[in-house]
Amino acid sequence: xxxxxxxxxxxxxxxxxxxxxxxxxxxxxxxxxxxxxxxxxxxxxxxxxxxxxxxxxxxxxxxxxxxxxxxxxxxxxxxxxxxxxxxxxxxxxxxxxxxxxxxxxxxxxxxxxxxxxxxxxxxxxxxxxxxxxxxxxxxxxxxxxxxxxxxxxxxxxxxxxxxxxxxxxxxxxxxxxxxxxxxxxxxxxxxxxxxxxxxxxxxxxxxxxxxxxxxxxxxxxxxxxxxxxxxxxxxxxxxxxxxxxxxxxxxxxxxxxxxxxxxxxxxxxxxxxxxxxxxxxxxxxxxxxxxxxxxxxxxxxxxxxxxxxxxxxxxxxxxxxxxxxxxxxxxxxxxxxxxxxxxxxxxxxxxxxxxxxxxxxxxxxxxxxxxxxxxxxxxxxxxxxxxxxxxxxxxxxxxxxxxxxxxxxxxxxxxxxxxxxxxxxxxxxxxxxxxxxxxxxxxxxxxxxxxxxxxxxxxxxxxxxxxxxxxxxxxxxxxxxxxxxxxxxxxxxxxxxxxxxxxxxxxxxxxx
Length: 512
Known about the structure:
By secondary structure, the chain is of the alpha+beta class. Helices cover 43% and strands 17% of the residues. Helix 3 (71-90) runs antiparallel to helix 6 (190-206), helix 3 packs across helix 13 and helix 6 packs across helix 12 (297-316).
């Protein structure tokens, strides 16, 4: 039997398996895994052929969990990123960049159960590499490698997760993160509370609805687990289970703790009593009076830290949007202190309403840099990451709902001609205006119709159009037209730059 025949039999068997799984209504993850194997077998069969059949069907699509961005979406994206970067700079952050892939050993063991979502790359140069899962671990590696012990930085770049995507909710396999981090030894909770302020400013500036910034503390969680009777070696895995409460009901999380993590019913129920609690300062005081909880030194330290950060949030004017929430866990292993998560609320703005989803998260990670330093020198760090993909999804949905049109170019002036054979004069005027710093375009046709040129200006929301004609050229003037009002005035050619600046300023103020 030839190798081709062997592969064809394997394809048939794998195809039968996929059909059986679908008929049995197995999980999407299991079916996707077997479908991927089927496609790999088909690809290996085609690789063995020198030429693929000319009539082979080829579906043009982006890879699962990714998307293209058209000009309208990129306009929204760039507007969001500009606002985010302005806030980061306002707080004194500098920017860095790191490679999109790292040595696999750099990423291994930093993400707990989420490590299974890391994309591994084939060995093509003697190094075992993986695509970066987030921007935090590469930042810690950067600090250790460059012996940096003090920096306030932001980093905006793509990260990659072999996750099950939910495209409508902004959950992708390739997506942007916008990170803000403060590294250095400082007094307790001062940089941490500024991170809350940064998230508050960004979400307020984007005007995407009501939100809540949930806060909790890893030491309090560990103390809570200890008080409930969770074995110390299960703290991180139970933390990962609690972290699912924003997506799954308590009953499912409880079942996972008992059936998969090995907790007893009694211990799981004790945890359930705590993780349903949320509030502000009054909750801190209530927990400090909990005789069972205060036996744990870790829990008391976490509660005292929560009391302090809530005080600083009051000073920074963010307390109204802050909630001390014991269900917040953040499943990543590297967090050591305060943890954050910002959530957009539903239309009613009620905490009981269906949430749109998490749009920011982060926390303190004081031991991560030391994992990379040969002498295990620690650099305390705290930071937050803005989930811009979900923000894009919300803004796109809002624009679609309101039937709003997005202006995709920034052209300020269009140079048009009213008669034939004036294209060189248009080109000359464009050159003069480009040299003067204006954003200008004209038709690439030599003799376009005037009506078509004016219609283009209306379609693209270009505010001003200059109309050239033979009589205007003889008199040394141009006709300047306001596209919205259709008002036209003659302007002396030499006065044109000054007149354009004045009129564009008026247009900008009106739009604002």
